């Protein structure tokens, strides 16, 4: 199983690239969104990959993150969704958008992808709704694992009494993926069902994409509060 490739781009085509890894060229198919973010020919690139094997064909599909790769695998588990349809959905919505649409039951957003009809979009939302919280949580853990703890930044502050002094700055807000994962975990610990919590966090994150964990929890709790 080929899970990741690191090499240089040999050439770019409309729906795929060739990655030269030690003199061996691998054809890797990507979504439009991913292709738009890749560097030029001759430059270094790393992609997570999923190998699809059929009776008469073997194809590699590439993703910039493990979360996007996981969504690809889940999308293809739905009846009627092949690799091209999965890439179309991810290319249109991105991994965060896919998670938000499924958590909220927003099949109309899924239908916006090329080649996806209303019945297929509804089936995707229905089949994957209970799996969305797990992938959303995965996104946060992967972000933390890859980035690691950031060293505390230092600021220079000068006062009349002490003169210039280097002091520890306030930590920056955590990334949106980690914040959403932590908010989801907190709501689950409060007793909310995973799918219910995921929908609330997704809606809150959609309204304030840069919100931190505490803000997401407060917003989600308001959405989950009994109406009337």
UniProtKB/TrEMBL annotation:
<keyword id="KW-0238">DNA-binding</keyword>
<comment type="subunit">
    <text>Homotetramer. Forms an RuvA(8)-RuvB(12)-Holliday junction (HJ) complex. HJ DNA is sandwiched between 2 RuvA tetramers; dsDNA enters through RuvA and exits via RuvB. An RuvB hexamer assembles on each DNA strand where it exits the tetramer. Each RuvB hexamer is contacted by two RuvA subunits (via domain III) on 2 adjacent RuvB subunits; this complex drives branch migration. In the full resolvosome a probable DNA-RuvA(4)-RuvB(12)-RuvC(2) complex forms which resolves the HJ.</text>
</comment>
<feature type="region of interest" description="Domain III">
    <location>
        <begin position="177"/>
        <end position="228"/>
    </location>
</feature>
<dbReference type="Pfam" id="PF14520">
    <property type="entry name" value="HHH_5"/>
</dbReference>
<keyword id="KW-0227">DNA damage</keyword>
<dbReference type="InterPro" id="IPR013849">
    <property type="entry name" value="DNA_helicase_Holl-junc_RuvA_I"/>
</dbReference>
<keyword id="KW-0233">DNA recombination</keyword>
<dbReference type="InterPro" id="IPR012340">
    <property type="entry name" value="NA-bd_OB-fold"/>
</dbReference>
<dbReference type="Pfam" id="PF07499">
    <property type="entry name" value="RuvA_C"/>
</dbReference>
<keyword id="KW-0963">Cytoplasm</keyword>
<protein>
    <recommendedName>
        <fullName>Holliday junction branch migration complex subunit RuvA</fullName>
    </recommendedName>
</protein>
<feature type="region of interest" description="Domain I">
    <location>
        <begin position="1"/>
        <end position="64"/>
    </location>
</feature>
<comment type="similarity">
    <text>Belongs to the RuvA family.</text>
</comment>
<feature type="domain" description="Helix-hairpin-helix DNA-binding motif class 1">
    <location>
        <begin position="73"/>
        <end position="92"/>
    </location>
</feature>
<dbReference type="GO" id="GO:0016787">
    <property type="term" value="F:hydrolase activity"/>
</dbReference>
<dbReference type="InterPro" id="IPR000085">
    <property type="entry name" value="RuvA"/>
</dbReference>
<dbReference type="GO" id="GO:0003678">
    <property type="term" value="F:DNA helicase activity"/>
</dbReference>
<dbReference type="InterPro" id="IPR011114">
    <property type="entry name" value="RuvA_C"/>
</dbReference>
<dbReference type="InterPro" id="IPR036267">
    <property type="entry name" value="RuvA_C_sf"/>
</dbReference>
<keyword id="KW-0378">Hydrolase</keyword>
<comment type="function">
    <text>The RuvA-RuvB-RuvC complex processes Holliday junction (HJ) DNA during genetic recombination and DNA repair, while the RuvA-RuvB complex plays an important role in the rescue of blocked DNA replication forks via replication fork reversal (RFR). RuvA specifically binds to HJ cruciform DNA, conferring on it an open structure. The RuvB hexamer acts as an ATP-dependent pump, pulling dsDNA into and through the RuvAB complex. HJ branch migration allows RuvC to scan DNA until it finds its consensus sequence, where it cleaves and resolves the cruciform DNA.</text>
</comment>
<keyword id="KW-0234">DNA repair</keyword>
<dbReference type="InterPro" id="IPR003583">
    <property type="entry name" value="Hlx-hairpin-Hlx_DNA-bd_motif"/>
</dbReference>
<dbReference type="Pfam" id="PF01330">
    <property type="entry name" value="RuvA_N"/>
</dbReference>
<dbReference type="InterPro" id="IPR010994">
    <property type="entry name" value="RuvA_2-like"/>
</dbReference>
<feature type="domain" description="Helix-hairpin-helix DNA-binding motif class 1">
    <location>
        <begin position="108"/>
        <end position="127"/>
    </location>
</feature>
């Amino acid at each position: 199983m080929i899970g990741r490739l690191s090499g240089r781009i040999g050439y770019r085509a409309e729906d795929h690239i060739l990655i030269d890894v030690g003199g061996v060229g691998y054809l890797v198919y990507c979504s439009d969104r991913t292709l738009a973010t890749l560097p030029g020919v001759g430059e270094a690139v790393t992609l997570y990959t999923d190998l699809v094997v059929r009776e008469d064909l073997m194809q590699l599909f590439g993703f910039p993150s493990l979360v996007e790769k996981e969504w690809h695998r889940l999308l293809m588990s739905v009846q009627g969704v092949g690799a091209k349809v999965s890439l179309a959905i991810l290319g249109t919505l991105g991994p965060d958008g896919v998670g938000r649409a499924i958590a909220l039951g927003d099949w109309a957003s899924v239908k916006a992808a090329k080649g996806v009809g209303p019945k297929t979009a509804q089936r995707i939302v229905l089949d994957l709704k209970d799996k969305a919280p797990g992938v959303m949580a995965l996104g946060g853990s992967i972000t933390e694992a890859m980035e690691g703890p950031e060293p505390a930044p230092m600021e220079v502050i000068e006062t009349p009494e002490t003169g210039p002094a280097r002091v520890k700055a306030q930590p920056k807000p955590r990334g949106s993926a980690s914040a959403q994962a932590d908010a989801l975990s907190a709501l689950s610990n409060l007793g909310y069902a995973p799918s219910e919590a995921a929908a609330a966090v997704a809606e809150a994150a959609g309204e304030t994409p840069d919100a931190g964990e505490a803000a997401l929890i407060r917003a989600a709790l308001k959405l989950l509060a009994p109406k009337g």
